[in-house]
TrEMBL record, chains A, B:
DNA-binding region positions on the chain: 40-59
InterPro entries referenced in this protein's UniProt entry, alphabetically: DNA-bd_HTH_TetR-type_CS (IPR023772), Homeodomain-like_sf (IPR009057), HTH-type_Tx_Regulator (IPR050624), HTH_TetR (IPR001647), Tet_transcr_reg_TetR-rel_C_sf (IPR036271)
Origin species: Salinisphaera dokdonensis CL-ES53
PANTHER family: ACREF/ENVCD OPERON REPRESSOR-RELATED, ACREF_ENVCD OPERON REPRESSOR-RELATED
Pfam families: TetR_N
Positions of the HTH tetR-type domain: 17-77
TM region positions: none
Protein name: TetR family transcriptional regulator
Keywords, ordered alphabetically: DNA-binding
Amino acid sequence: MPSSDSASLKPMTARGEATRQRILGAAEEAFGKSGFFRASISDITRGAGVAQGTFYLYFQNKEEVLGELVRHMGRELRRMLTHSIPQDLSRLEAEREGIAAFMRFVSQRQNLYRVVQESLFVDEQIYRDYYMDFARGYISALEKSVEKSEIRDGNLEVWVWILMGVGHFLGLRYGLWAENGLGDAELDAVMDFIRNGIARPADRD
Amino acid sequence: MPSSDSASLKPMTARGEATRQRILGAAEEAFGKSGFFRASISDITRGAGVAQGTFYLYFQNKEEVLGELVRHMGRELRRMLTHSIPQDLSRLEAEREGIAAFMRFVSQRQNLYRVVQESLFVDEQIYRDYYMDFARGYISALEKSVEKSEIRDGNLEVWVWILMGVGHFLGLRYGLWAENGLGDAELDAVMDFIRNGIARPADRD
DNA sequence: CTGAAACATGCATCACTAGTCACCTTTGCC
DNA sequence: GGCAAAGGTGACTAGTGATGCATGTTTCAG
């Protein structure tokens, strides 16, 4: 028994997988454009070019599709960051590359990013998992950097949530709302903040 | 002519205002608990203790209620911050007080905060207006602080979006998801980041 | 070539909700 | 006390959308 517990109807063996992917793609588009709740199953199946019933061959409901999309974004983003950030960079350099890569990702996959954000209002657990997972990896990366003295020490958990918040709002403001994403000058300003904070040099401690 | 343009049916003169407020309160609760889309008009009117039709005496639809709630949160938050932050504080001190006050606000009015966040998926303009307005005031406050040399200079617009992102994620992580809000030690860690950044003292510039 | 498993269809059912409206109640001014 | 305006009601209409299912179609091993 393949321990299918609550894990719906995922099994399949060929073209089925392709159909499933087309449904996921159409859902990403529909959710991104209309929002999760306004998008209907029939919008999705129409977009995928399949009949309504076909949807239920692969998913129990819309929520399940959303969860899948959010996890997909998590994997894609990690993969992307891994590939965009050379191993030999110092933490601050890596941070800059990471933010730049993230911003490109959001600009290019606006629908998917919106879907992730909306998951907070569909199933909070999906959203929490997404960020808790990301935070876990981020914290251990910072820990290593502290050990190598590439950055100073501090409450890394809090700092990571701060950094994720920074990324999120930059993604919103410059990835979704700006024509041309985040420019180099602006990225400089971001890094200036992250490196040095806002206190005058004389007031730092 | 009272230039009622698109401004629905707001006029009233006595107990009507009280009813309208009860509807807004019930909507805040319903939206916060179930989400905007899952909450029905009849959920709201039931919560307010009025008949369904009464809703349409004061609002055209759910969206309008949401807009009202978001603008309400904006006003309340500003008022709160104004009252919580003594005038004679330096910018860094004010920043600390502001974050602490914001965190208390989110913890106490979780439903309202959720409503504001969900507005992004109901009517993006409402959400943008909320943050664009907030950013405007925040930027000019920072400009004044720069003039007084309380903080160093930089790209204040970018910094403000960073700071709002920080606030938002702290609100999420510690205001909505943590039992006890943001502790003093954690607030210290936040201020440490905002003051000094994460670079080692030797690497600062 | 053939039959069974996997895939796919699309319509019918069922539940639910936004918004309307004809009618009733309260308020307060004369 | 009478009456008009403001406030309030709740059943009803029209529409939408999720989901079930009986009925095809495709694929491919033997």
